[in-house]
Design goal:
Blueprint (H helix, E strand, L loop, with lengths): L1 E11 L7 E6 L22 E3 H9 L6 E5 L7 H14 L4 E5 L4 H4 L4 H4 L4 E4 L19 E4 L2 H7 L10 E6 L2 E6 L5 H11 L12
Parallel strand pairs: 2-4, 4-5, 5-6
Antiparallel strand pairs: 1-2, 1-3, 6-7, 8-9
The protein binds iron/sulfur cluster.
């Protein structure tokens, strides 16, 4: 099945417990003001992949404690998302699956539930710039972390999540990629420090 993919990464330590694989789906119809991943909004043909390609990549990785699916808006591709989650369940039965969505909780637990069936935890609700805060794994305080399975409850509710958010920085093909949820003011500070060092940030995935 075809799926639009922005990128994948491993190992990831900043988007959930343990050592994780992360998969960002390409395309977002929600388009929250202040989104830091605006490069994932469009749906270029170059992002077309097959779900099996992603699963083959996942199968070749070393120890994977969990898989984080983000975007973009994963539920914009409901059938592909469901195929991906089902495939991860088969490929990595011990890994927890965390899905980020900007959809409302009421939708995720109602009409949207089939698209995320098999996920252990989901983070719901759009990013709201005026509510940007410091909650673990969430960009704004309106966003909700829901555990959907016993594994999800054990990893996201019963075990304390780190109270400090982490940003992981990778350099891939000449691009600097930041993985994680930045806390308020961090990106502006990054721009100031880069300017002070004589560097200009070009092609950022966020607006000032
Ligand atoms: S925060 Fe998520 S849902 Fe909102 S615009 Fe960005 S990618 Fe889309």
């Amino acid at each position: 099945m075809e799926i639009l993919i922005s990128r994948t990464a491993f190992p990831v330590q900043a988007l959930g417990p343990g050592t994780r694989a992360a998969i960002w789906l390409q395309g977002c119809s929600i388009r929250c003001a202040g989104c830091v991943a605006q490069d994932t909004w469009g749906t270029p043909a170059s992002s077309r992949r097959q779900v099996d390609e992603v699963l083959d990549w996942l199968a070749c990785l070393d120890e994977v404690d969990g898989v984080t699916i983000s975007g973009g808006e994963p539920t914009d591709q409901p059938e592909a998302l469901q195929a991906l989650i089902s495939g991860i369940r088969r490929t990595r039965p011990a890994a927890d699956i965390l899905v980020y969505t900007g959809r409302p909780t009421s939708w995720v637990l109602g009409d949207g539930r089939p698209s995320i069936a098999g996920a252990d935890a989901v983070i719901t609700e759009p990013f709201v710039r005026t509510e940007a805060g410091y909650l673990p794994l969430r960009g704004s305080d309106n966003q909700q972390l829901l555990a959907l399975t016993p594994l999800g409850r054990s990893r996201y509710v019963d075990t304390a999540l780190p109270d400090r958010r982490r940003i992981q920085v990778d350099v891939v093909d000449g691009e600097i990629r930041m993985i994680g949820i930045p806390t308020p003011g961090v990106l502006a500070e990054l721009g100031r420090r880069a300017a002070a060092a004589g560097l200009s940030l070009r092609g950022t995935s966020w607006q000032d």
